[in-house]
Amino acid sequence: MKRVTVSMKDRDGNEHAYTGVAVGEILEMAGVTTGKHLRGENLTKYMLVKCADGYEVLFSLAELDADFTDRTVIVADQSEGKPLPPGKGPFRLVVPGEKKPARCSFQVTELVIKFAKE
User: Fold this and answer.
1) Domains observed in the chain
2) Potential cystine with 62: which of 53, 68, 94, 117 (Cβ 3.0-4.6 Å)?
């Protein structure tokens, strides 16, 4: 998978570079509805991110799709060119451009795709 680097500000306003794989690419490779097929009923699909400590965050698929947004959300395994430290990795969801980093999740264990009707 293609690796990308994005920057994100922490709670203190400091910029950090994270490297990993774009969530959009992961979803596409997994056969999740993306691109031109993401319309109608498929726009009710969402991705639930689960973390080792029980923390969970939610995204509509449109928030993650390159046909809808220029923002690239990634599953990172590196920060500043080094592996994520214990307690933060091995995977972290990085969401650039949000005013609060609340959906930037540590120790990601699972990405779950469902319809909002379920």
Assistant:
1) 3-115 (3.90.420.10)
2) 68
